[in-house]
Amino acid sequence: MEIISEIQKKYSSQGHDPEVFLKGLLVSRPLTYWDYIQVDTLLSLQHPRTDYPDEKVFIVYHQVVELFLNLLLHELQQLLGTNNPSDSWCEDKLNRITNYAEILNTTFQVMNEGLDYEQYNSFRLALAPASGFQSVQYRLVEIMCTPPEQLLHRKWREPGELKWDDPMEFYDKLYWREAGINPANGLPGMMLKAFDERYKELLIETFRRYKGRTLYHWALERQSQGRLTKKQLESLRRLDHVYNVEWPLTHLRTAERYLAVGGVVKQSTGASHWREYLHPAHQKRIFFPFLWSEEELASWGQLSEMTG
Ligand code: HEM
Questions:
Q1: CA of 134 to the centre of ligand 1 (A)
Q2: Signed CA dihedral, 66, 282, 241, 220: sign only
């Protein structure tokens, strides 16, 4: 049979006896769904810290988000790491990336509607100072999508190219540091300190690796060469708006539902000034500013729907 001779050729060419591999097929167990998907391992990864049943919902949904962020990064890595891809392949990749961002936004109702108010406000007390803020994959998406000047705190952002040789020079000026600085002494609080200790090195390395080759640079080059297709443009704008306006607003409204009721604003587990910080019009985080009109940029974050 042709397939047998191909198998023999494959293993012989690598100095292996093909018979050993063929005999292995006779003795190995057939693959099962549960082994392949690692269902038991997956379902053993939830460790609530209280007895409130809804804490499991909270943990599982965060894990689902991390898996989708991982798929988003997986597509981004392929898109940014492939030389001379076809237009349709890029359209497919961008479409997948945008879809994952949309899924993060639409499924957030699991948090908004799926937690009992009293239970959430009880079990969350056992979680301080941990916060979703410490999701490193969320930051990696940002770093791969846009250059650091777009991620600086607004007071440090200037028009034109940022002059920097090393991420260590601007790390402390990134917009999200604001959420974790203790106003009493100007130093990182517990949430930010733990995050820096665990991830600063990885973030710095990622800034270096994607310097000059983020999705922003990918899109800008194509646009300036007149090669950005309509579908690519639509996906990029959609991604920018969903990741930087719609998800942040959905997330903020959820935080308000649990933490700001009856005029009282509760302290979050990460202890940020969250109501101000989390608003997209405050952060003004924009991945691809050259794809938006002056008017759209000026009103960024004030609209929940995309305008164009
Ligand atoms: C009831 C549900 C949730 C509430 C009340 C909530 C609340 C908050 C608050 C108050 C912050 C600001 C930092 C702090 O002070 O802790 C924050 C940040 C953050 N949370 Fe959540 N969160 C919820 C669910 C989630 C989920 C499911 C995720 C998904 C991983 C998530 C991801 C994030 C991220 C990425 C940030 C940082 C955002 C930024 O820097 O702009 N959160 N959250």
A1: 9
A2: negative
